[in-house]
């Protein structure tokens, strides 16, 4: 078997976690707060497009949420396996929350978000703000591990706060806590969503420094080719495409097909969008944001199909319009 084929096969292998749990695959969805709503979860699971979730962050502020509340937060993601992501400032509450979450039905593990670079989040000393104090990340992961009797403990980071030169020290601290996985978004917090020409080099650095740690890559995986190129060139263990799932909701299933040596079938987004409109129409509030966002990503904002959807965004009109696209 060629080296490339070995990589592809490996992407489909599960990852063992403490307590006999498993991440079912190494191709997992990158969380998207605001996008992964009830309707998004419903449509993605009805079309069977994901092996598991990494949820968008659950914000833990000045208290530990009750078990019932956390159960409620995870309701949209059932019944497929869940990695629950948390983000916050206070170690004690984060650790206690990890303990509760790891004990909930369907939860494989808990991931600490140290990657969100939204100015509000950073101002509240949360998300990527922790990259400036990697010892805090290490100690928080250790506290989460102590609190969670079973299940995996992971962390999502960026390559630095100000500069990718911070990456080695961040990795040294984080790996001292022996997380079950690290997701690395290759941009720094300061780079937000800007393009970075040396992104792959940052993955290579992480791989070189942490040859034994399960390392997931994040950043700009919009197609199968691009996603698999990252694995081939940088030898990361897994990938977490996020915005690419808006361009192609089948992206993860297509990647899995390629890893099995198959050619992904042609995909028709029309039945997907029709069903999504039905779901959104059943919700208490009619919101077209998600439908238009997916349509824009799939067809492009200049396409006639997208433009025609924006002209009459009432449910019946949208249904008729999309049905006509056949
Ligand atoms: C709308 C949106 C919401 C996001 N929410 C989260 C989040 O809740 N947790 C997280 O770890 N990353 C979040 N991300 C970051 C993505 O998971 C991912 O790391 C980033 O978009 C880069 O990957 P991509 O180029 O494949 O999208 C979000 C990204 C977007 C676009």
Give descriptors for this structure:
two-stranded antiparallel ribbon, TIM Barrel, binds flavin mononucleotide, alpha/beta, 10 strands, 2 domains, eight-stranded parallel β-sheet, 326 residues, 13% strand, 44% helix
Please summarize what this structure is.
This protein is an alpha/beta fold and 326 residues long.
Descriptive account of the structure:
- This protein has about 325 residues and is an alpha/beta fold.
- It has two domains: about 5-260, TIM Barrel (Alpha-Beta Barrel); about 270-325, no CATH class.
- It has 15 helices and ten strands.
- The chain has helices at about 5-10, 40-45, 65-75, 90-100, 120-125, 135-145, 165-175, 200-210, 225-235, 245, 250-260, 270-280, 290-300, 305-310, 315-325, and strands spanning about 15, 20-25, 55, 60, 80-90, 105-115, 150-160, 180-185, 215-220, 240.
- Helix 12 packs antiparallel against helix 13 (about 290-300).
- The longest helix has 14 residues, at about 135-145.
- The protein is globular.
- The termini are far apart.
- The structure holds flavin mononucleotide.
- Flavin mononucleotide binds near residues 34 and 185.
- The site of flavin mononucleotide has 22 residues, from loops.
Question: How are the secondary structure elements laid out?
Answer:
Layout: H1 3-11, E1 15-17, E2 21-23, H2 38-46, E3 53-54, E4 58-60, H3 67-74, E5 82-88, H4 91-102, E6 107-114, H5 119-123, H6 134-147, E7 152-158, H7 167-176, E8 181-185, H8 199-209, E9 215-218, H9 224-234, E10 238-239, H10 244-247, H11 251-259, H12 269-282, H13 289-299, H14 304-311, H15 315-324
Parallel strand pairs: 3-5, 4-5, 5-6, 6-7, 7-8, 8-9, 9-10
Antiparallel strand pairs: 1-2
Helix pairs in contact: 2-12, 4-6, 6-7, 7-8, 12-13, 12-15, 13-14
């Amino acid at each position: 078997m060629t080296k490339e084929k070995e990589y592809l096969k490996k992407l489909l292998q599960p990852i063992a976690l403490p307590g006999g749990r498993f991440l079912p695959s190494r191709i997992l969805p990158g969380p998207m707060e605001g996008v992964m709503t009830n309707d998004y979860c419903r449509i993605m699971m009805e079309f069977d497009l994901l092996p598991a979730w990494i949820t968008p962050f659950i914000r833990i502020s000045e208290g530990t949420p009750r078990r019932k509340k956390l159960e409620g937060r995870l309701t949209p993601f059932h019944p497929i396996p869940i990695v629950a992501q948390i983000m916050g400032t206070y170690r004690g509450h984060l650790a206690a929350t990890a303990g509760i979450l790891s004990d909930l039905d369907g939860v494989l593990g808990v991931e600490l978000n140290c990657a969100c670079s939204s100015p509000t989040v950073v101002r509240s000393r949360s998300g990527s703000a922790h990259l400036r104090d990697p010892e805090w990340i290490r100690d928080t992961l250790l506290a989460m591990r102590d609190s969670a009797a079973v299940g995996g403990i992971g962390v999502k980071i960026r390559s630095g706060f100000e500069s990718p030169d911070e990456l080695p020290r961040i990795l040294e601290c984080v790996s001292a806590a022996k997380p079950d996985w690290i997701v690395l978004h290759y941009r720094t917090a300061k780079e937000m969503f800007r393009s970075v020409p040396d992104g792959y080099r940052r993955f290579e650095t992480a791989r070189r420094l942490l040859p034994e740690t399960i390392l997931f890559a994040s950043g700009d995986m919009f197609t199968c080719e691009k996603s698999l190129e990252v694995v081939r060139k940088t030898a990361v263990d897994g990938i977490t495409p996020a915005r690419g799932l808006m361009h192609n909701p089948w992206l993860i299933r297509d990647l899995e097909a390629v890893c099995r040596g198959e050619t992904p079938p042609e995909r028709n987004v029309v039945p997907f969008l029709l069903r999504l409109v039905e779901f959104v129409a059943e919700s208490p509030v009619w919101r077209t944001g998600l439908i238009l966002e997916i349509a824009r990503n799939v067809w492009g904002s200049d396409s006639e199909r997208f433009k025609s959807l924006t002209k009459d965004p009432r449910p019946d009109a949208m249904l008729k319009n999309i049905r006509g696209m056949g």
